[in-house]
Write a structure and sequence with these properties.
alpha/beta, D-Maltodextrin-Binding Protein, domain 2, 2 domains, three-stranded antiparallel beta sheet, 10 strands, transmembrane transporter activity, ABC_Gly_betaine_transp_sub-bd, signal, ABC transporter substrate-binding protein
């Protein structure tokens, strides 16, 4: 009897295979914009096939997802979270060991600025700086033939209408002869870039990245010469009232992969992958342009990316993990 009990005890205390890295059921927020949906499908495929997780996608959006992760500990993963939108709540969640910052989804951060087409800078290299744009202001003809120069602003009602307007004032662009043109919508603003590019005409205005537009139409972000200042941006440029705006560059928006603390603890290897999985804006711009041209959803884009760009994703994995992923890809 003692022998049998000893054997039973030995069996019970043996660690189960993979218990220290037991992934189990995992929920991933599938946010309602293309880059985030692509990353959600990518993470689902990788977690299922490399880390043996039972990974499921659930609908998500920035504020509801962040709130749910803090209060309800679900979903487990938000692959592309624009953290500044609820920075205090997220930081509190991390401090209370409810959340974890796995890594940055976009290594450049969300990017905003005033842009000109690259073919203009090739012709006039000084246009990479605001002084050069002002010097050649006469090239930016107003589309309605008015006696002023065109600056395409952010659509009315968007937050960037405020920020772009304050920076327009800080740069004294009205004194240089420019008028802000409201494009009416995001699609309208994108259309002005496409039209200018197709005709190789001058264009100057506000835009952001990552976007399919900047993937299709290479643009140069104009330098203002004073760098960035997060405090001034928060206290003045992004506020309705900004009496003394300074011509600072837009600070990058932190875009992170946020996980629950419980997921990071139970699946450290999977969490380590999320810390390595990151894209530059140039890479994401190109992928978003491909998605738009091919009317591809996040799942289709995931397959395209993994099959066409192994040189980008192989650095996220060790040789054994790469072998598992390649095997899963071959079965698609």
């Amino acid at each position: 009897m003692k022998t049998r009990l000893a054997a039973l005890t030995f069996i019970l205390i043996l660690p189960l295979p993979g218990l220290a890295n037991q992934c189990g059921e995992v929920t991933i927020a599938d946010m309602n914009w293309n880059s985030a949906s692509f990353m959600a499908h990518l993470d689902q495929f990788v977690l299922r096939n490399v880390f043996d997780c039972d990974a499921q996608l659930i609908p998500g959006d920035t504020m509801p997802t962040g709130t749910s992760m803090v209060e309800k500990n679900e979903p487990d993963i938000a692959p592309e979270f624009w953290s500044n939108s609820m920075r205090e709540a997220l930081d509190n969640g991390v401090a209370q060991q409810r959340l974890s910052y796995a890594g940055v989804s976009l290594s450049d951060g969300g990017e905003e600025g005033f842009w000109v087409p690259d073919y203009l800078v090739e012709q006039y290299p000084e246009m990479a700086n605001i002084e050069g744009v002002i010097k050649h202001a006469a090239l930016f003809k107003h589309p309605e033939g008015e006696d002023s120069f065109a600056f395409y602003g952010c659509p009315a009602g968007w937050t960037c209408q405020l920020t772009a307007g304050h920076l327009f004032d800080a740069l004294n662009l009205e004194q240089a002869g420019f008028t802000i043109i409201d494009p009416g919508s995001g699609a309208g603003l994108a259309g002005t870039i496409a039209k200018a590019y197709e005709r190789k005409q001058p264009w100057f205005g506000y835009y952001w990245a990552p976007t399919p537009v900047l993937g299709k139409y290479p643009m140069v972000k104009v330098e203002f010469g004073q760098g960035s200042d997060q405090a001034h941006y928060n206290d003045c440029i992004s506020q309705v009232e900004c009496d003394e705006p300074r011509p600072i560059m837009y600070p990058p928006s932190l875009v992170q992969t946020v996980t629950t603390y419980s997921f990071a603890s139970k699946a450290p290897e999977a969490n380590a992958y999320l810390g390595k999985r990151s894209f530059t804006n140039q890479q994401m711009n190109a992928l978003l342009a491909w998605m738009e041209d091919n009317q591809a959803d996040g799942d289709y884009a995931m397959e395209y990316f993994l099959k066409e760009f192994p040189e980008l994703w192989k650095v996220w994995f060790n040789p054994q993990q790469i072998e598992k992923l390649n095997k899963a890809l071959a079965a698609l």
